[in-house]
């Protein structure tokens, strides 16, 4: 069996049904193998390598399943760098399949097509794990290990490379069974008991969650209700506890409550901002649960550090807490009032962003998926857009990659064809990957994308204006007619100039069969960062 076929068959054995990518000289054998298995693969051909990788990221982030993309080596791999680092930042299980120069020339600098120095080393630095397959017989084990890495511990991207001559080489191969689901890491019971004692005695506990808690929603709800503790999330943890629950609160709300917290339990989060920016002191006890042992002491040493799966660890904590928990009155009325006050504050100080977000939320079903962007509306969405279910709010995390949103949303829609998906973009960010509109049209994806146009890289212009005394440079943009542009691709284009028109165009958009672009001129916006760049409120003397 040829190496390329072994690689493809081994990947498909692990339940992969969708692959994003672009064929090229060193991956011909892969695509020939795709042809043989065409009835088992939903092959999505993108218009750029970075677009393919972002699509795989969106697929993975919105489902929890492995997203797969394939690109040519060298410049193809380098073009995916922003997307790979986004998947790394957001703990998304993404598999990169790529080629190489001929095996006899690897590392020799001969100048073969697409040759770059130490491609494997580059991939190793952008992923959790990477490997070169140097013989067809080694492919099944390499793929098996790749999926082991993708589905255990901290889920991050991995990569496999194979030279074209190895892809075309025929050999006797023993196929392997797919990786079986692994039992999640079990937390140390002694540490669970210690954490329960701290929480049980607490007067003002808080729960902070990140994307590592995404499968622990029911357990966290039960824990929160036992403690009557607010649950705070910034981006990755949005929707783990529905924002309709009185204990689910925004990040700025967490900052407002922070000075009075006596015990905080951080679950599946780096827990960076509170420790580095909000401040800590001797009156605050910290419990940190994370599946990644390197995360526990990265910034500071918690009072209790627990290495384990979030769902299992919180489930183990609940019965221990029941033994020590103090009697607690419901804080529902208090927190509903507090949530209303915070919403009113956002509405007063962050316009027109909040009005836009209210309109989008009104038209998007509870299970609809919202993909943010690095834009003024996107920043406000981190705290101002209600989220009701996990994996329905997609962001780029700390990677903060301008332009990631539109191709990511294509991957989200491919993975969730029966759910409504809305992507938001600025006029600057959309143009990074506007060519992928052709991909959305080709595959008939009813993705609604809203472009907020103000003719500038606004966040940069605002910073230049305030920090450099109005010395604004390099930030003004000349835009196309986005409606005409959409129509030229074969998509539907609308323009909305009011909130009412935006809601109407979203409704119309969801009735179409293919992609929809809605341009909304936005004008001057309030500064959304006033609720994100939050000052120290504790002394850091611990």
Distance between the termini: 62 Å
Radius of gyration: 24 Å
Regarding quaternary structure, how should these chains be classified? single chain
User: In DSSP terms, counting alpha (H) and pi (I) runs of 4 or more, how many helices?
Assistant: 23
CATH homologous superfamily heading of the largest domain: Thiamin diphosphate (ThDP)-binding fold, Pyr/PP domains
Share in β-strands: 5-15%
**How confident is the prediction overall: mean pLDDT?**
97
Number of strands: 18
Given this structure, which CATH class of the largest domain is correct? Alpha Beta
> What is the second-level CATH architecture of the largest domain?
3-Layer(aba) Sandwich
Question: Which segments are poorly predicted (pLDDT under 50) over 5 or more consecutive residues?
Answer: none
CATH topology of the largest domain: Rossmann fold
**Domain unit count:** 3
What characteristic shape results from the CA principal axes?
globular
Biggest β-sheet description = 6 strands, parallel
Strand order of the largest sheet: 2-1-3-4-6-5
Topology record:
Layout: H1 3-12, E1 18-21, H2 28-36, E2 42-45, H3 49-63, E3 67-71, H4 75-79, H5 81-89, E4 94-98, H6 119-126, E5 129-133, H7 139-151, E6 158-162, H8 164-168, H9 189-201, E7 205-209, H10 217-227, E8 231-233, E9 248-249, H11 251-257, E10 263-267, H12 272-278, E11 285-290, H13 293-296, E12 304-307, H14 310-324, H15 332-349, H16 353-363, E13 369-371, H17 376-384, E14 393-394, H18 405-415, E15 421-426, H19 427-430, H20 437-442, E16 448-453, H21 458-467, H22 482-489, E17 492-495, H23 499-510, E18 516-521
Parallel strand pairs: 1-2, 1-3, 3-4, 4-6, 5-6, 7-8, 7-10, 8-9, 10-11, 11-12, 13-14, 13-15, 15-16, 16-18, 17-18
């Amino acid at each position: 069996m040829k190496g390329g076929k072994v690689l493809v068959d081994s990947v498909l054995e692990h339940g992969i049904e969708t692959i994003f990518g672009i064929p090229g000289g060193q991956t011909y054998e892969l695509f020939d193998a795709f042809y043989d298995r065409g009835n088992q693969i939903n092959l999505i051909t993108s218009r750029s390598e970075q677009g393919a990788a972002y699509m795989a990221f969106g697929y993975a982030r919105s489902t929890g399943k492995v997203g797969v993309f394939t690109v040519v080596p060298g410049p193809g791999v380098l073009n995916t760098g922003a997307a790979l680092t986004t998947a790394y930042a957001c703990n998304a299980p993404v598999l990169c399949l790529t080629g190489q120069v001929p095996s006899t020339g690897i590392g020799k600098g001969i100048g073969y097509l697409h040759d770059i120095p130490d491609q494997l080393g580059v991939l190793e630095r952008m992923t959790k794990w990477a490997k070169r397959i140097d013989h067809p017989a080694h492919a099944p084990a390499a793929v098996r290990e790749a999926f082991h890495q993708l589905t255990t511990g901290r889920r991050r991207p991995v990569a496999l490379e194979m030279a074209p001559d190895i892809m075309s080489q025929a050999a006797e191969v023993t196929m392997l069974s797919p990786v079986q689901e692994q039992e999640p890491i079990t937390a140390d019971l002694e540490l669970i008991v210690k954490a329960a004692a701290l929480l049980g005695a607490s007067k003002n506990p808080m729960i902070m969650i990140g994307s590592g808690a995404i499968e622990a929603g029911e357990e966290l709800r039960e824990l929160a209700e036992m403690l009557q503790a607010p649950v705070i999330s910034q981006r990755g943890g949005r929707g783990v506890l529905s924002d309709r629950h009185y204990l689910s609160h925004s990040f700025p709300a967490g900052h407002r409550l922070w000075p009075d917290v006596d015990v905080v339990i951080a679950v599946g989060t780096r827990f960076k901002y509170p420790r580095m920016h909000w401040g800590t002191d001797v009156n605050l006890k910290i419990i940190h649960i994370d599946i990644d042992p390197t995360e526990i002491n990265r910034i500071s040493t918690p009072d209790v550090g627990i290495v384990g799966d979030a769902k299992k660890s919180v489930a183990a904590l609940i019965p221990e807490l029941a033994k020590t928990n103090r009697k607690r009155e419901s804080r529902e009325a208090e927190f509903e009032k507090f949530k209303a006050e915070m919403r009113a504050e956002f509405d007063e100080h962050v316009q027109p962003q909040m009005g836009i977000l209210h309109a989008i939320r009104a038209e998007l079903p509870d299970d609809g998926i919202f993909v943010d962007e690095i834009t003024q509306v996107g920043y406000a969405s981190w705290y101002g857009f209600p989220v009701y279910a996990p994996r329905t709010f997609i962001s780029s995390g700390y990677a903060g990659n301008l332009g990631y949103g539109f191709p990511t949303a294509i991957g989200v829609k491919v993975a969730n064809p029966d759910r409504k998906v809305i992507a938001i973009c600025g006029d600057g960010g959309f143009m990074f990957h506007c060519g992928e509109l052709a991909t959305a049209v080709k595959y008939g994806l009813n993705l609604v994308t809203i472009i907020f146009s103000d003719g500038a890289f606004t966040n940069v212009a605002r910073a230049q204006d305030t920090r450099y005394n109005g010395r604004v440079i390099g930030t003004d943009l000349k835009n196309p007619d986005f409606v005409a542009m959409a129509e030229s691709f074969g998509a539907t284009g609308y323009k909305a100039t009011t909130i009412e028109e935006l809601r109407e165009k979203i409704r119309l958009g969801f009735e179409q069969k293919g992609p929809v672009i809605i341009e909304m001129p936005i004008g001057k916006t309030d500064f959304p960062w006033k609720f994100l760049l939050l000052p120290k409120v504790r002394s850091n003397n611990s």
